[in-house]
Structure formats: C-alpha cells, structure tokens
Design the sequence.
C-alpha cells in the first residue's frame, strides 16, 4: 500500500533496545523523532505545490472519478425511464427510484465511512476496490432481469464502489492545491456533468441496435477504461499525522455548522428529482418523442457542467455562502419552472438553467465544511458528517418524489424539489449569519 513515509511513524528501536534504556533516555531519543514527524507534516501542508504536472494529473484522475461516481448518479434518469416503461413496468416509479437512491446514498455514506481508511494510507486499496465494484456491478446489471437483482447490482454493488472512489476524489486535491483549490475542485467535479451527459446518450443510442444489456456492458467498458486513468496517475502526497475521527462532537456545539448540515440535508432531499424524472415527464406531457426525450437528461447534466465550474470561480472571489445561497434559490425557482412548460424549447431552457444551478449546489456544498472547520485536522471528519446527512437525504428524496408523482402527478414532484431547494437556502442564510454576521456584502 502507498504510505507516504514522511507522515507514517516508523519504529526505529527494537524491543530489546527499548527495554535496555531508561525512561529519561527514551524521552531524549523519542522527542526529536516526534518533533521531526510533526515538522515534516507541517512542512507538507505549508508547501502545497498549487501547480505542476503532478498536481494537475491528480485533477485529471479526480475528473474521471467524478465521471464514474456522480456521473452515474446524474445518468440514472435514463435507467429510471427504461425500467418504468419496459423492464420493470409492473413496478411503480417510487419503487424503481429506490435503485438510484440506494446507489446515491451509498456513494455519500461509504465515502464518509472510508475517510479513516484513506487517512490510514489505504488509498490504493480504495481505488482498486472501488473501480472493481463499479465495473462488476455494471456488468451484473446488464444480465439482471428481476427488481431485486438490479437493486443488488446497480444499487448496492455500484453504490459501494462509488463510495470507495468518492473520498480519494475529494481528499487528495486539498493536498496538492491551496489558492487554486476551488478551480481544481470545479474542474474535477465537471466530470460528473460530462458523465451524466454522455452516458444517457450512449445507452439510448445503442439500445435499439444492440439491446439494453449490451448497452450497459458498453457503459461498463467505458468505466473500465476511464477508471484506468486515476489508477495510473493518482498518488498520495501526504497523510494526516493522526487518523481522522468518524465524528467530531464539538462540531454540533457550533450553530453555523449545525445549520449548514441541516440546509445541506434539506436541499439534497429534492435536488435530484428532475434528474430522475425529466424523461418520463417530457414523454407524458408530449413535450418530446421517445427518440428525443433522453436528450433532456443530457441537457440538464450539460448545464451542470458549467454549474460546477463557473460558480466555483466566483466563490473563490466572493465567498462560498454568497454563491451557494442564490444558486439554491434559483434552482428552486427553476424546479417550479418545469411545471406547466408549454413547449419543447421551454423545457430545454428550464433544464439548462436548472442543471447549472443544481450543479453549483452539488459542487460547492461539501467544500463549505472546509470554511466551517477552524481546525484543519477536522476538515475530513466534518465533511464526512455532512456527507452522512446528505446520504440520508439522497436515500429518501427520489422515492418520496416518486410517491408524490404516483398520487398527485409530476407537478407535485417538481414542486417538492423546488420547496426543498428554497428552504435549504433559507437555512443556509441562518448558518451564514451565525458564521459571519448579517452583512450582505461580506465575503463568506
């Protein structure tokens, strides 16, 4: 396993040597070693390269990790549509949505739980295990014919695999970038939008000619090829001097952090509803034909590519709170905008704008934990706690929207999404006030 030597203590004394020396001698011998380790760790953080070939190769690797994690989540609407109208047509949309919800939930939950594993130096293990499970799960999905088989293969196997990959995609970049971290994160996160744009097109273009099973196998081969890149180029630069805690209880004493996690949770309950149901909505309302409806998912995810880049650049200048709060409000407004769109051009326009602002929510929300962590060593822990809350939101959100769709129609489902985003923004306003006051123009 790759374990950067400068931050992993080595036992330089044998047991016999230790026993032969007195307590005072041990103190004199060990203290310089401990100080050397701490200085090495400190220097590693203080001398973050912020550029260079090796640093940008990590961005390339992280890009393909996002492509195969959040990209698959963004593309789930293509699966939802096919399962609803064909393979699982005897099931309700709410039941089918559990497949994508479990996958998304495990991405965040396993990603949070594997933080200490990453800190312990098992980066390569996570990368290989996660890549293998994603590819294996996709191939198993291609041969599945029953609901429980698809749930196990796509929901659990792919979900756990993406969770193993998510921590490296986020944690590694902060050791290579400082002032350019938001730019690096935005470029990496754009992989999810590109994956969510390309994969539905691949599935829908290949399905009529080679069938759904081979279309999914093609996606599996794409994942195999693209995941080879991070496995080849990504390298651990340094690790924390101590393993990360799973929970930082002191974080809950800060109202700003508590409100941030709550706002994060509420927004994520509804943010992916349009991604799951946009194709079915367009087909039912006659806004697109069966041959063109799948492009609407590509439109939303295409908009999210820009949403993961542009707002990150602005956030670096004016502050993350000052960007994500307006983006949440606008995402909520455009979620309501799907209700009653009169023609295909209108739904395309609303889809692009919703994709842009929802992409900003997904990209910026996790990095707010950095701003709310006074102790750098606790950044990973606090981010993991926020991810755990978001994983619960992702688990319940799409099925709840599906239940609303079953009983009250698409207007209720999209309205639910809009309310969640706007209410999440209101909660983040309170978090911002607790963190830095009510002054609107202050960089926060």
Sequence:
């Amino acid at each position: 396993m790759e374990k950067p030597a400068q931050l992993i203590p080595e036992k330089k004394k044998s047991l016999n040597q230790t026993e032969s020396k007195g307590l005072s001698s041990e103190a004199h011998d060990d203290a310089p070693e401990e100080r050397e380790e701490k200085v090495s760790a400190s220097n590693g953080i203080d001398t973050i390269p912020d550029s260079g070939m090796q640093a940008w190769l990590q961005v390339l690797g992280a890009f393909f990790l996002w492509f195969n994690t959040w990209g698959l989540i963004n593309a789930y609407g293509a699966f939802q549509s096919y399962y609803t109208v064909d393979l699982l047509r005897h099931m309700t949309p709410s039941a089918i949505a559990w497949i994508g919800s479990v996958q998304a939930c495990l991405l965040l939950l396993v990603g949070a739980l594997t933080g200490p594993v990453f800190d312990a130096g098992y980066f390569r293990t996570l990368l290989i295990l996660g890549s293998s499970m994603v590819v294996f799960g996709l191939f198993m999905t291609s041969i599945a014919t029953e609901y429980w088989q698809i749930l196990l293969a796509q929901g659990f196997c792919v979900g756990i695999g993406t969770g193993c990959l998510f921590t490296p995609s986020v944690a590694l970049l902060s050791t290579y970038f400082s002032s350019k971290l938001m730019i690096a994160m935005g470029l990496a996160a754009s992989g999810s939008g590109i994956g969510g744009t390309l994969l539905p097109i691949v599935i829908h273009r290949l399905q009529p000619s080679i069938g759904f099973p081979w279309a999914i196998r093609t996606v599996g081969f794409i994942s195999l090829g693209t995941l080879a890149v991070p496995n080849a180029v990504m390298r651990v630069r340094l690790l924390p001097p101590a393993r990360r805690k799973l929970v930082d209880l002191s974080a809950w004493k800060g109202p700003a952090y508590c409100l941030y996690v709550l706002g994060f949770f509420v927004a994520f309950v509804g943010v992916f509803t349009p991604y799951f149901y946009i194709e079915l909505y367009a087909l039912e309302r006659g806004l697109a034909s069966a041959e063109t409806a799948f492009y609407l998912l590509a439109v939303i995810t295409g908009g999210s590519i820009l949403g993961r880049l542009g707002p990150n650049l602005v956030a670096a200048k004016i502050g993350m709170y000052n960007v994500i709060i307006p983006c949440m409000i606008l995402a909520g407004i455009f979620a309501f905008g799907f209700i009653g769109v009169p023609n295909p051009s209108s739904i395309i326009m609303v889809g692009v704008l919703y994709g842009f602002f929802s992409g900003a929510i997904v990209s910026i929300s996790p990095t707010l934990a950095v701003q709310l962590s006074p102790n750098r060593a606790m950044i990973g822990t606090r981010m993991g706690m926020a991810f755990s809350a978001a994983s619960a939101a992702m688990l319940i959100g799409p099925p709840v929207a599906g239940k609303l769709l079953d009983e009250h129609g698409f207007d209720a489902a999209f309205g639910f999404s809009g309310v969640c985003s706007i209410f999440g923004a209101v909660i983040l306003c309170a978090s911002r006030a607790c963190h830095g006051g009510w002054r609107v123009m202050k960089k926060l």
